[in-house]
Design brief:
- The protein is an alpha/beta fold.
- It has a five-stranded parallel beta sheet, with helices on one face.
- The termini are far apart.
- This is Flavin-containing monooxygenase.
């Protein structure tokens, strides 16, 4: 009896120690997702050690003049595509005087402010490359990893209880030269967009840009100011939207809203598609500009304020996909030929890989279908490895990676559970087989709906906003949450990681949006109050009154047939009941 009691006590003590001891977590990469991972570890009383191969934080947002170190960096003129209120850390808003969309240097300053405010820099080992991450012999019991790193030629080995991979999507340039016959005959300059930094050196040259994503559009527009001519080749076409929407407000804040998400779920897909295309063509007809989506291709959207104007002015010429290259020219699929091309720039994206992982984990992690909620590999019996930031969303990647990190750290602590690996592998394998047989569409390369994905992760953590409850407790806040922009602060209103400043951040988000615009104030006291003012003041009371009227109306319609049966035709009664 005494031995049984001692064994039980020992087990309870071990369980207690597992939950109370600080677990060591290796964070690989100190970019946007790496910084949030460090902070989330600290929030959950974990011990992070971050390994960063460069000499500074920020990942691709840290501009350098060259890319000789093989690390992908932004080009100097890059401007963010998501406005500051929609793409900030959920408990650290941008300063109010920061522009809504900012150049890379300004955004990097924000990352630096974030790291300094939460004292994250002391947890980062710079100029340190991760060589290998392998399971410990007792992994099935402990979930621990052996991590080998190299710093200035010196190898080091350490044991970690968990690992967060934050190396990002933009690791290896994708340069599909084999898909372009004759490219090796071409005598001009060939480069990938990873090598592009500034427009110097392209003056008076004829430049062909291959690939029309955000990068392809940006580079084509910038070079159009100095090059003799820019040709922009695309296989698929794209929808082009501006950073500013109706009224001049940031398009993200006007479009990414819960009420729009609700409408999209209710409307038939054909109606939704028609409505979206009608809205996108309102600014300019994409067919007239050679930008319309090729039949049978997946629709995509890029953000570019100037591309339509450049096409209109003739400084950028749209072309179909390239069929073949000669020494100095390109033959296109539509039979046209462009002569005397000096430079070809491939903006054909990137591939990501994990050279420090061992097989079969290395290959499995490159298949998004085998990542549970795009975070946890399905084949691990212990959920102590998290892939942070390997997502493509219709909204802010920064906000998405932060929520991933919040969830992952709570899983590491045992506070959130995920299904067993056997079940996850069976589901993923079955899905893969159905895709291979053509019975299921492969959506792994598609962008995920921002609000749906964020809500899904937030539900796992317990931080998804309860909108109906908010309408009862705080109508003003609920109005902003449901009808206003879905800013990251919404995921700090309740549950684990609740931030006391979240409510105020939501209610003042438009103040921070308009602040940097108001650099010239012209007093005009005669100007009447705007409609938005009245909506903010009376919206919530009107909504509640409407709900009460609806409830009363439904009761009234139920009582009328009973009281006035003989006086109202059966036809009308049937309509009311229907």
């Amino acid at each position: 009896m005494g031995k049984c009691f001692q064994k039980l006590l020992s087990q309870r003590m071990n369980t207690f120690l597992e939950h109370t001891m600080a677990k060591r977590v290796a964070v690989i990469g100190a970019g946007v997702s790496g910084l949030s991972s460090i902070k989330c570890c600290l929030d959950e009383d974990l011990e992070p050690t971050c390994f960063e191969r460069s000499n500074d934080i920020g990942g691709l947002w840290k501009f350098t003049e060259t890319s000789k170190d093989g690390i992908t960096r932004v080009y100097k003129s890059l401007v963010t595509n998501v406005c500051k209120e929609m793409s900030c850390y959920s408990d650290f808003p941008f300063q109010e005087d920061y522009p809504n969309f900012m150049k890379q240097e300004k955004f990097w300053n924000y990352l630096q402010e974030f790291a300094e405010h939460f004292d994250l820099l002391k947890y980062i080992q710079f100029r340190t490359t991760v060589c290998s991450v392998t399971k410990r012999p007792d992994f099935s019991e402990t979930g621990q990893w052996d991590v080998v790193t190299e710093t200035e030629g010196k190898l080091d080995r350490a044991i970690f209880d968990a690992v967060m991979v934050c190396t990002g999507h933009f690791l290896n340039p994708h340069l599909p030269l084999e898909s372009f016959p004759g490219i090796h005959k071409f005598k001009g300059q060939i480069l990938h967009s990873q090598e592009y930094k500034i427009p110097t050196g392209f003056q008076d040259k004829r430049v062909l840009v291959i690939g029309l994503g955000n990068t392809g559009g940006d580079i084509a527009v910038e070079l159009s100011r100095t090059a003799a001519q820019v040709l922009l080749s695309t296989r698929t076409g794209t929808w082009v939207i501006s950073r500013s929407s109706d009224g001049g407000y940031p398009f993200n804040m006007m479009g990414t809203r819960r009420r729009h998400n609700f409408t999209a779920q209710v409307l038939p897909s054909c109606v939704l598609k028609w409505s979206q295309e009608r809205g996108l063509n309102k600014r300019f007809d994409h067919t007239n500009y050679g930008l319309n989506i090729t039949k049978g291709k997946k629709p995509k959207i890029i953000v570019n304020d100037e591309l339509p104007t450049c096409i209109l002015c003739g400084t950028v010429t749209m072309k179909t996909s390239v069929k073949e290259f000669t020494e100095t020219s390109a033959l296109f699929e539509d039979g046209t030929v462009e002569e005397n091309i000096d430079v070809v720039i491939f903006t054909t994206g990137y591939t990501f890989s994990f050279p420090f992982l061992e097989e079969p984990l290395k290959s499995l992690c490159t298949k998004k279908i085998f990542l549970y909620k795009l975070v946890f590999p399905s084949n691990l019996e212990r959920t102590t490895l998290a892939m942070i930031g390997f997502i493509s969303l219709t909204g802010s990647i920064l906000a998405g990676t932060e929520l991933q990190a919040r969830w992952a750290t709570r899983v590491f602590k045992g506070l959130c559970k995920i299904p067993p690996s056997q079940k996850l592998m069976a589901e993923a394998t079955k899905k893969e087989q159905l895709i291979e047989r053509g019975l299921m569409k492969d959506t792994s390369g598609d962008k995920l709906d921002y609000i749906s994905y964020m809500d899904d992760l937030a539900a796992c953590i317990g931080t998804k906003p309860n909108v109906p409850l908010l309408f009862l407790k705080d109508p003003r806040l609920a109005w902003e949450v449901f009808f206003g922009p879905c800013t990251p602060y919404q995921y700090r209103l309740m549950g684990p990681g609740k931030w006391d400043g979240a409510r105020n951040a939501i209610l003042t988000q438009w103040d921070r949006t308009l602040k940097p615009l108001k650099t010239r104030i012209v007093p005009d006291s005669s100007k009447p109050a705007s409609m938005s003012h009245y909506l903010k003041a009376w919206g919530a009371p009107i909504l509640l009154a409407s709900l009460l009227l609806i409830c009363k109306s439904s009761l009234f319609l139920k009582l009328v047939p009973e009281k006035l049966w003989d006086r109202i035709s059966p036809y009308l009664i049937s309509i009311w009941r229907g």
